[in-house]
Design brief:
Helix content is 59%, strand content 10%. The chain is of the alpha+beta class. It folds into two domains: 171 residues, BirA Bifunctional Protein, domain 2 (2-Layer Sandwich), CATH 3.30.930; 141 residues. It starts with a helix and ends with a helix.
């Protein structure tokens, strides 16, 4: 049996729901979402435009549940504009240009959630999407054949520090977040069964299932192979960074020694010309000590090799610095991928009873 199919079967066997899940249909996530910016309407003021939008969401004939954050839904249009006015006064930037607010629509398959459950999912989706920085309210509508949320959030942050900017891929990012919240909420309503005498981390399992689905990993051996490769790549990059930093440090030390040697060599030549006069030594003791230290450092670093020209050393140092910067960027991405794969494999292994988790922690180190 394919890994993903097995996990999904185990998922529902171990955690039976009191209703059908809100997110699965043919093995794919089905709570649909989209995001839409709302600008000032023609021949309407900004506050009128917001109220028109919000009145639709708050229509009592459609409304099944409502919740809000940092605002009252009934006066949200005025409260949104108050924050925008404060933003404009503090920054000098016009807050009414562009989007006044954003609307997220989140729909669920017919009969698979109650209005209250849908509203909770919508509230958590909005909170995680805005990171608690923007006012929002969630209207759950029940007038259609399926329950759906209308989430409205201010385009201006509540602390007046910024405006929300829609970005390329925002719809995908929102859909992914909504899928994750649906998974977590569908799991959170069950009694807490025990797996190997421990309560299983439901959020980790939801994340693992989503990762496997998004990356097309249906075979355990493929997951294990990718995890091992990610760990090996991470450690290889760590070793390469260490080697590059050592070479960079050595090149910098050599350059510093060469500069110090060049500055103090005339002092030594003068000392030599006086036939190593004690009086001259007393007058230039510090410079002569620097000369001896610089010469010793150069001999130690080169170990008999020819001293490169300063321009060559500068070029090498810059190349090593650029390489280090690029390696660290690769390293951070490799670390992220490794941790994600190790966590997913750990969740799968835990579910399958293959490990107690210590192996994955050791592997990540």
């Amino acid at each position: 049996m394919a890994l993903l199919t097995f996990l999904l079967c185990a998922y529902f066997t171990l955690f039976p729901q009191k209703c059908q899940p809100t997110f699965l249909k043919g093995g794919t996530l089905t709570a649909t979402t989209y995001i839409k910016p709302h600008k000032q309407a023609a021949k309407r003021t900004a506050i009128q435009s917001l109220k028109d939008r919000f009145d639709y969401g708050l229509n009592p004939e459609k409304l099944g549940a409502v919740s809000s954050y940092l605002c009252d839904p009934e006066t949200a249009h005025a409260e949104f504009m108050l924050v925008k006015g404060q933003y404009q006064a503090e920054t000098g930037r016009t807050a009414e240009q562009g989007a006044l607010c954003y609307q997220i629509r989140q729909a669920f398959p017919q009969g698979e959630v109650t209005p209250e459950e849908a509203n909770r999912i919508g509230y958590e989706t909005a909170m995680r999407w805005t990171k608690g920085k923007y006012q929002f309210f969630v209207c759950t509508h029940t007038d259609k054949g399926h329950i759906h949320n209308h989430i409205y959030y201010n385009s201006t942050a509540y602390d007046r520090s910024r405006k929300f900017r829609n970005f390329i891929g925002s719809s995908f990012a929102l859909r992914r977040l909504s899928d994750r919240v649906c998974l977590e909420h569908a799991l959170s309503v069950v009694e807490r069964p025990k797996l190997h005498s421990k309560v299983y981390n439901l959020k980790q399992m939801a994340a693992a299932l989503q990762f496997l689905q998004e990356h097309g990993l249906t075979d355990y051996d493929a997951l294990a192979e990718q995890t091992t490769a990610a760990v090996d790549r991470f450690h290889a990059l760590a070793g390469e960074i260490q080697s590059t930093e050592a070479r960079l440090s050595q090149t910098s030390e050599l350059m510093a020694a060469v500069v110090s040697y060049a500055k103090t060599r005339p002092i030594f030549d003068g000392y030599k010309a006086t036939k190593y006069s004690k009086k001259y030594l007393a007058q230039h003791d510090a410079e002569l000590a620097d000369y001896r230290a610089a010469k010793a450092a150069i001999n130690d670093i080169l170990d008999g090799a020819k001293l490169p020209k300063m321009d060559t050393l500068k070029k090498e140092r810059q190349e090593l610095a650029d390489k280090k910067k690029a390696l660290y960027a690769e390293y951070r991405e490799a670390q992220r991928q490794m941790r994600e794969l190790v966590a997913v494999k750990g969740s799968v292994d835990h579910l399958l009873g293959l490990t107690d988790g210590r192996e994955n922690k050791a592997q990540e180190r």
